[in-house]
Amino acid sequence: MTQADARLSVLKTYKLYVGGKFPRSESGRVYEVTDAKGRWLANAPRASRKDARDAVVAARKAVAGWSGATAYNRGQVLYRVAEMLQGRREQYVAEVADAEGLSKARSAAQVDAAIDRWVWYAGWTDKVAQVVGGGNPVAGPYFNLSAPEPTGVVAVVAPQESALLGLVSVLAPVIATGNAAVVVAAEERPLPALTLAEVLATSDVPGGVVNVLSGRTAEIAPTLAAHQDVNAIDLTGADAELARELEVAAADNLKRVLRPEPPYDWTADPGTGRLTAFLETKTVWHPTGGLGVSGSAY
Amino acid sequence: MTAEHKLFAYAPAPESRSVVDIAPSYGLFVDGEFTDAADGRVFKSVAPATEEVLSEVARAGEADVERAVAAARRAFTSWSGLPGAERGKYLFRIARIIQERSRELAVLETLDNGKPIRETRDADLPLVAAHFFYYAGWADKLGHAGFGADPKPLGVAGQVIPWNFPLLMLAWKIAPALACGNTVVLKPAETTPLSALFFADICRQAGLPRGVVNILPGYGDAGAALVAHPDVDKVAFTGSTAVGKEIARSVAGTGKRLTLELGGKGANIVFDDAPVDQAVEGIVGGIFFNQGQVCCAGSRLLVQESVADEVLDALKRRLATLRLGDPLDKNTDIGAINSAEQLARITELADAGDAEGAQRWTAPCELPGSGYWFAPTLFTGVTQAHRVAREEIFGPVLSVLTFRTPAEAVAKANNTPYGLSAGVWTEKGSRILAVADRLRAGVVWANTFNKFDPTSPFGGYKESGFGREGGRHGLEAYLR
């Protein structure tokens, strides 16, 4: 055995990502995360209901700045995420291979697709309004313009199987349009999500725009679904029974609910459905008036 | 110089030239390589502020157009066959490299064009990078753009651009063309070839496949040969209306797709309720930005009679504070005119203003001893029949007309063969929209002027050309 092989590696303590910081769970709990063959990988924080509420507060604080940033700026930031992810590609290939039990080549394909997905959504930030908004030819002397706006704080129950590509595919469209997200990471495969937080923290994504919680989905998600300051919820990672429960809870303040139909194919063309799911449409009217010399006060 | 000016005099604050390394000579950029012109001809690019020769550049001729179009044709199959996401990633790379090199490119552009560094640094270069960034994102979303589910590129685009915003006009041409899967042969203007040649180097750094972008510095003969080449599928031109008409005749009957972004004589309409200080800033920016060498310049000020004196007094006070001089000085507002020819044209038209009876007022400023300069000038007492009200001067000369009613303002604004831009200044929203509805112009700025954004379509009505550049609309010119 060489000396290099004898060296003991330094393990990472995985933490939550809330408000741009990396706290442990306030509950002090962790749970064991294993690879596809059952070998121990890490002890991940097991977020509590209180952690979920803290994450919503952090997300709400971030909404004004992020939704108020120019679409161009948000596009640059999302592209920066792709750049950072590319730089840590090898780390993710290993992590996704562990989490999902994939060969290195198949894992690499997942990571590459995840990087490109950030680029796809980076390009959407300043185009979605041009595709779903526009002037309306109302039958009267009025200027009438419909434009999309982000809905606000979106809770995202990340897909349970696809730990990185699936996660990116549900998270990027939420924040591309200016929402802030609280993500419940895949319960059994949370490590790529917790590591993605490290990329987000170094990609000019303002703190609080993305918050990542690991733990028991059935424990965290109901708190988010019932939370009165959450505007929308994506149920992708909830099983049918949990999804129904969450949808009922979400009805209390009429959250926008995205409940896609499994099975999911994260390699397919993502389309625009996930972008538009978390948008409001605002229509502004203004009189155009005549060319009179004097006239009304508007 | 008044006491007031001395009190607020600025020390020189020149931007360093050392960030840009201009080679003594440049070739054509064809098929991924720099080469001499087939007939060995060259021309000199001159700094208009000093008349210093910056570099000697190969001058493209017909044989070079042949080579470049052939290279673009060869590259088209594989380039258009790439997945949109991959094409997009090349464009994102280009956008990022432009951002990284923006200081160098800003200094280069200021040297070669004569425009103030404040403008190249704060307007041209950020817009150039943003344009590539914007169209990069479209490359894999063309099916969402409203031109059918699976729109296709046209082929080889022949593009001819002017000297007033050399790199920005290049971006407006190349970014959408490439995003849609076309390959390009681009001819920059003969007085400002250098930034396009630096762009060729950026293509190299980005690893862009050879032949996708070809740059042919040269004169009008090269542009004419490019436009007329039978293997060019699409012609895009920005420049004068006279040349635009020649090009339209040249491509007539060939089936080539054509977009033209031509001259303008923009009306800037100031109503009596406009906030005067804000309007004055807009008028100044509208006509003196880039020394007035802007196709969408607000070169006709239409001011309501009741506030004309107040606006003109404020305008002259403001113009007296503009700083004309070294374009590399960060405090400079007004740089050099781009060429001796352009200066002669401005001078001739301004003289015609005198001869036809308009009253000339010139901002008090000293002109440097060498280079091409024209002090900010305005004409009052202008009628609609005067040449300074009808013809595009493309220089820092503002013609002032007055009006009494909104209807008269609209009639005067539209009384031009051009239709590129207009401005409306009023506190009243319904009047903005009513006037905008009636203006025959492709861009109407309300309580602002000369605003540009890659997401916003730009282009003219009437003899200001056809087609739009920028925004979702800008894709249409490069798709079928």
Task: Describe it.
The complex is a heterodimer of chains A (298) and B (480). Chain A is built from eleven helices and ten strands. In chain A, helix 8 links the parallel strand 6 (180-184) and strand 7 (210-213). Chain A has a five-stranded parallel β-sheet with strand order 7-6-5-8-9, with helices on both faces. In chain A, strands 3-4-10 form a three-stranded antiparallel β-sheet. Chain A has helices at 3-6, 49-68, 71-87, 89-100, 104-124, 128-132, 165-176, 191-201, 217-226, 240-250, 273-276; strands at residues 30-34, 40-45, 134-135, 142-150, 153-157, 180-184, 210-213, 232-234, 256-258, 279-287. Chain A has one domain (14-33, 49-287): Aldehyde Dehydrogenase, Chain A, domain 1 (3-Layer(aba) Sandwich), CATH 3.40.605. Chain A is of the alpha/beta class and 298 residues long. The model of chain A has no long low-confidence stretch (mean pLDDT 95). Chain B is of the alpha/beta class and 480 residues long. Chain B has two domains: 17-262 and 463-478, Aldehyde Dehydrogenase, Chain A, domain 1; 267-453, Aldehyde Dehydrogenase, Chain A, domain 2. In chain B, helix 15 (429-438) links the parallel strand 16 and strand 17 (443-446). Chain B starts with a helix and ends in a 14-residue tail after the last strand. Chain A binds chain B through residues 71-72, 75-76, 79, 116, 119-120, 122-127, 130-131, 143, 272, 286-293, 295-296, 298, and chain B through 85, 88-89, 92, 130, 133-134, 136-141, 144-146, 405-407, 410, 428-431, 433-435, 437-438, 454-455, 471-472.
